[in-house]
Structures are given as structure tokens and as C-alpha cells.
Amino acid sequence: MALWIQAQQLQGDALLQMQSLYGQHFPIEVRHYLAQWLEAQPWDAIDLENQQEEFKAKRLLDGLIQELQKKAEHQMGEDGFLLKIKLGHYATQLKSSYDPCPLELVRCVKHILYTEQRLVQEASNASSPGSGPVDGTPQKYQQINQTFEELRVMTQDTENDLRKLQHSQEYFIIQYQESLRIQAQLSSLASIPPAERVQRESGLQSRKSTLEVWLTREANTLQKYRQELAEKHQRTLALLRKQQTVIIDDELIQWKRRQQLAGNGGPSEGGLDILQAWCEKLADMIWQNRQQIRRVEHLTQQLPIPGPTEELLTELNATVTDIISALVTSTFIIEKQPPQVLKTQTKFSATVRLLVGGKLNVHMNPPQVKATIISEQQAKALLKNENTRNDSSGEILNNNCVMEYHQTTGTLSAHFRTMSLKRIKRSDRRGAESVTEEKFTVLFESQFSVGGNELVFHVKTLSLPVVVIVHGSQDNNATATVLWDNAFSEPGRVPFVVPDKVLWPQLCEALNMKYKSEVQSDRGLSEDNLVFLAQKAFSSSSNNPEDYCNMTISWSQFNRESLPGRNFTFWQWFDGVIELMKKHLKSHWNDGAILGFLNKQQAQDMLMSKPNGTFLLRFSDSEIGGITIAWVAENPNKAGERMVWNLMPFTTKDFSIRSLADRISDLNHLLFLYPNQPKEEVFSRYCTPPNCMHVFSCRQKCHHMTLLLFISAITNPVHDWNDPMLDTEGEFDLEETMDMARQVEEFLRQPMETQWSGQQS
């Protein structure tokens, strides 16, 4: 309700904008009486592009109707009686309007709340220069709004001057007609008697002379008015172009850059509402000035007066057409990008939007948008305006969509919901380039007219680079291509050029962004984590972060060349860690229970100073998506000597059978999580509850017990520590030991009758 209280304090233009949000589609009385309820609902949690979310929207609609009816029932007295009827009517009206499409209600309310929040924030910034929007650019926003106010005043000024010119010209024409009438009267004097003719001719000649002097002087004045008005329009158009550059080339490009980084897990690019509001203001003022210039042209044609104005008006017409063309073509954007890793024969969606569509009434004749997939070379040719002969690099099903106008939000957009890439045509690859390094893009294009077919626009926009795959095994390498492109591409580049080498700190920023997003954690990669990654990427042993600050890493080092002694790349190893964490271990990472980014020697150095039974969790160097347990214990072969043991890495497959917490609970010799936390304090809340054991099947019980016995057998100090399953460095032999454990697990996962049929018989 706090937002509504603040919204009611708005004044001037902001108050008018707020009031314009409401109407029959959503009465302002509903906003007022249900303010607290409306602001408490999870509107943002509903994805408007997902039709499966419609049931959530329906629940909110039903709740809104119930709240309205409840509010109506509690109204008492004479005034309350009228309000009761009105609220009841609104409940019926909203149910009738939104019951067939409850997602439209969500769209409407989200737009209202967002716009109110923006207006309140802008008002707050204006009154408190020290505070501002979250992005820290209140001064820029304030400057944009000030420029709009300046443009409004200038446009109103030229409108007043134009009316003055029109009135002056109309009076001039009347006087000119009077001059012609006098001339006609003089010509007709020949037919009357001489005495009368002389008398009348004298008076008419005097009036004609006076009028001609006035007409000459007034013609010069009109020409001066026209010239001054044209010069004012020149200044207005120059400021309009400058404002448009700020909004389109700065703010909209920054939004697109945020959208691209969001593909790497960066923060959301934010809504387009404020950008649309700016673009609509631009469109409105450009169109007003265009109409003014055309009216001046009409006046000039109506009364030609020799002078430079005609040439100046031609120049102004070309300028204003160029400005509005740039605005329209630049504001045809992709609101929701298609997936950047695109698998053939798989449905995908995208949304395109024309930010000025509502203001220019494009929706009166809704245009159709077509989607086509094209190659990098075709995209380059397109931007050079070369004839691509309507070439494409594949076939997209359901690739046509009509733009729809949403009256509640004032947006004109096309929602492609069920596109599917049927086939792809690949180009010849260069050198060592693999199919997962080849980039495509989805081209969206449309054609429409504005101003009663006065101007026809053919608009096009390209999606972010897309890597096409045909099998899930290609996903991680394709993701590497996308991550590198999103992180290091420059605005305005030639498609889709990216640097082959980047500074290590730049890559660290991209990796940290991706990791936090995928693991859904506020705990990102620490400086020590990044040093470990640098050591892995550069095969270095330095522990000093500054040693890596000026080092560059190439694309080949990132995801083309295998790490020394391994059969996988740096990215493939890192991506394996991400997959493991997000599927099974994110809670443990958020708790700080997993150190992860440590090598074997670091783990040993850390554990040797701790009591026996202390353990830590680190990511495996040898296996993609593996995590191992290292712990310190007595050396059975030398009394009084201690050593660090490393368990074979667990992978996603292992945790699908039994969780990490349960596995740690099973291992009785693991006592303290590094540095000194009792393991029960850290992991017990994630263990399978004891009371759930009663409902376990016989097979699951047997599985658990067998694993406990197996682990006990290979870790119990009483056991013969010269067992060939242990290597001389205190590691379990990966080929023998855990293969046996997995065989046991696989066996126990089989159906009961298969396992025990021999015994039963």
C-alpha cells in the first residue's frame, strides 16, 4: 500500500500519466480500495509467455474478485450503498473481461505497478538530487526528462508561430483578393461616363497604391515569418536528433547489452517500459514537427513567395523523415531472445516488440513478422545492404506471427510460442573450428505503414548469436561459444566478431557471473577460487593473484585445447563443476561446506594441521563433474604418522543414487568438516530422515547396509592396509575399489524379483 500512498502525492504531468493508467480495463477505484492486497500479490512470479502459468493468473483473478466482493459487502450507510453497487459492478466487469484470458490481468497490473513505481522514483529523484534509480544514473534520467520538456516548449512555440503565420497569410490573401477586385473595378471604368470615371478612378488608384504597398511589406513579413519558423524547426529537429541519439544509441544499446549479459547469468536487463515511454515521446514530438513542416509547405504552395524557404523546407522534410525512420527501425527489438543454444526438432519461443507501435497506430493494420535463421556470413551481407536473395540457412516451422496490441500496457508485440528448427544448413568450417563454434542468428522482419500509408517501413532485427546443436552432448561446447560471445562482443561489431584473446580478469568476471546464476547463489567465486582456476588454465603454480592480472587467455586455451594430461578442456571441466553443483550440491555450496577449488597438495597442506577425521570437499582434477572427499587419518603402516586420503570422486550419477549428506553420514571416520565443524551440524539436516527408513523397500535397506559394510571394510583401521585397492599415496584405486562399489549399487537398483529370484527358488 506504500506505493499507492506515494502515487497519490504525484503532481503535474506525472499525476496525469498515473491517471491515464486506469480506465474500464482496470478502474482506479479498484486500485484505491484494494491497494494493500494488490501490492502484496506475486505478480512478477508469473511468466506471461508461459501458457502453463495461466492457472496461477486465474487464481489471482479469482482472489481479486473475492476481495472486491468482500469490500463491497462491508460498505454501510448511504455513501456505502452507492460504493457497494459500484464495487460489485467492477467485480462483474473484471471477471467478464479477464476470465477468458487471466494472463492479461497479470500483464495489466504488472504494467500499472511498474509505471507507478517509475513515476514515484522519478518524482523522488527530482526532489532529492542525491538519491536516484538503482542503476545510479539519476542525473542522466533527469537530463532526458529536461530535454523532453525543452522540446515540448519548442514544439509548442513553433505551433504558435505557425498559427500566427497562417492567420497572417489568410489576411494577406484577403487583402490580395481585395487588390484584384480593385484592379477589376479599374478595368471596368472604361464603360462609364468620363466625369464619373475620373472621380472613381482617383479613389480606386489611391486605394490600390496603398494596398500594394501594404502587400509588398506584408509579403516580406510573411517570408520573414516562414524563414524564422524554418530555422526554429531546424533547431528543434537538431535537439530531437540529439535526444534520439541518447535514447537509442545509449540507453537502448545499454539495455541490449544487459540483455546479452543476462544470457551469461547477469542481472535482468530490466523492463522496457521506461524506454518505450521515452521512444513514444520522441515519436509524438517528431510527428508533431513533421505535421507542422507539412502545414508550412501547404501554406507555401498556397501562396508562393520567392525566397530560400522552399529549399529549406525540402531539407527539413528530408531530415524529419530520416529521424522518424531511424526511430522506427531502431525500436523494432527482440524483447525475449530465442535460446542461444538451439537444438533442432525442439520447440522454442521468442518475442519481438515495436516500442513506438502504439503511438504511431501501427496496430490499426496489424503487421506480420517473419522469422528466418541465417548464417554469420548472411548476417554480414544483410548489414551491408547486400542482396541476400532471401537466403536462409535452415527451415523454421511456425515462423510467422501477427503483432498484437495490448491496450492495458500499450505494447505492440509478436509472441512466437511454438517455433521449431526443422533443419540447418552448415557452412564450410575454418581451420580447427567445430560445429559448436559456428554461429547463426534469427532474423525477424516485418513491413508496415504509418500516417495513412505516407511512410512505409521495412524493419529487421537480428537475434543474439545462436549455436545450433543436434544432440545434447554438444551442449557444453555450444554454451562455451555463447558465453565467450556474450561476454566479449563489442556494440556495433561486424557479426559476430569477438576477440580471440581476452585478459584473464575479464574471463573471471564472466565465469563468476555464470557460476552464480547457474548455482543460484550469492556466494560467487572467491579470489582463491579464481587463482586455482588460473593455475589450471595456465598450468601455473603461482598463488599470487597479481601474477595473472595482465595475462591473456585465448579461445583455444578456453575450449579448444585439452588441459595437460587430460582429455577435456578448461571450460568442459568448469562446466562439469557447474552441472554437478546446480543439480545436487547447491545447498552445500551456499552453506560454505564445499571448498571445491583446491588441488590435492593444497588439501593435504590444509588437513595435516587438523585433528584426525577432519575432511574437506574438493572438485576432482581428473574427472569432469566429480567431487572428492579428502581426510586426514593415521598411517597404518607407520605408527604415529598421519596422512591424507582421497576418496574416488563422486559424480551426478552417484548422487542420483544417494545424496552427499547421506554418504558423509555413512562414513564414520569422517568427523569434522574443515576447519573444525562437527559434520552433524553441517549435513544432518540434509540427511534422509530416520523415520523415512521404515518405508524403505527391502532392496533400499540392503543397498544402504551393503554400502556401509563395503566402506567400513576399506576404511576400518583393523583392515589390512596393504590391500592392493589402496595406492602408496593413500588413494583408493579407482579401477578396482569404487568400480566394485558401483557394481553393488547397480545390482541393488535392479528389481527385487531379479536380484533374489535365485535365492527364492
From TrEMBL:
<dbReference type="InterPro" id="IPR015988">
    <property type="entry name" value="STAT_TF_CC"/>
</dbReference>
<dbReference type="InterPro" id="IPR048988">
    <property type="entry name" value="STAT_linker"/>
</dbReference>
<dbReference type="InterPro" id="IPR000980">
    <property type="entry name" value="SH2"/>
</dbReference>
<dbReference type="InterPro" id="IPR001217">
    <property type="entry name" value="STAT"/>
</dbReference>
<dbReference type="InterPro" id="IPR008967">
    <property type="entry name" value="p53-like_TF_DNA-bd_sf"/>
</dbReference>
<dbReference type="InterPro" id="IPR012345">
    <property type="entry name" value="STAT_TF_DNA-bd_N"/>
</dbReference>
<keyword id="KW-0727">SH2 domain</keyword>
<protein>
    <recommendedName>
        <fullName>Signal transducer and activator of transcription</fullName>
    </recommendedName>
</protein>
<dbReference type="Pfam" id="PF21354">
    <property type="entry name" value="STAT_linker"/>
</dbReference>
<dbReference type="Pfam" id="PF01017">
    <property type="entry name" value="STAT_alpha"/>
</dbReference>
<dbReference type="InterPro" id="IPR013801">
    <property type="entry name" value="STAT_TF_DNA-bd"/>
</dbReference>
<dbReference type="Pfam" id="PF02864">
    <property type="entry name" value="STAT_bind"/>
</dbReference>
<keyword id="KW-0804">Transcription</keyword>
<dbReference type="InterPro" id="IPR035858">
    <property type="entry name" value="STAT5a/5b_DBD"/>
</dbReference>
<keyword id="KW-0963">Cytoplasm</keyword>
<dbReference type="GO" id="GO:0060429">
    <property type="term" value="P:epithelium development"/>
</dbReference>
<dbReference type="GO" id="GO:0005634">
    <property type="term" value="C:nucleus"/>
</dbReference>
<dbReference type="GO" id="GO:0003677">
    <property type="term" value="F:DNA binding"/>
</dbReference>
<dbReference type="GO" id="GO:0005829">
    <property type="term" value="C:cytosol"/>
</dbReference>
<keyword id="KW-0010">Activator</keyword>
<dbReference type="Pfam" id="PF00017">
    <property type="entry name" value="SH2"/>
</dbReference>
<dbReference type="InterPro" id="IPR013800">
    <property type="entry name" value="STAT_TF_alpha"/>
</dbReference>
<dbReference type="GO" id="GO:0007166">
    <property type="term" value="P:cell surface receptor signaling pathway"/>
</dbReference>
<dbReference type="GO" id="GO:0003700">
    <property type="term" value="F:DNA-binding transcription factor activity"/>
</dbReference>
<comment type="similarity">
    <text>Belongs to the transcription factor STAT family.</text>
</comment>
<dbReference type="InterPro" id="IPR046994">
    <property type="entry name" value="STAT5_CC"/>
</dbReference>
<dbReference type="InterPro" id="IPR036860">
    <property type="entry name" value="SH2_dom_sf"/>
</dbReference>
<dbReference type="GO" id="GO:0009653">
    <property type="term" value="P:anatomical structure morphogenesis"/>
</dbReference>
<keyword id="KW-0238">DNA-binding</keyword>
<feature type="domain" description="SH2">
    <location>
        <begin position="589"/>
        <end position="690"/>
    </location>
</feature>
<keyword id="KW-0539">Nucleus</keyword>
<keyword id="KW-0805">Transcription regulation</keyword>
<dbReference type="InterPro" id="IPR013799">
    <property type="entry name" value="STAT_TF_prot_interaction"/>
</dbReference>
<dbReference type="Pfam" id="PF02865">
    <property type="entry name" value="STAT_int"/>
</dbReference>
<dbReference type="InterPro" id="IPR036535">
    <property type="entry name" value="STAT_N_sf"/>
</dbReference>
<keyword id="KW-0597">Phosphoprotein</keyword>
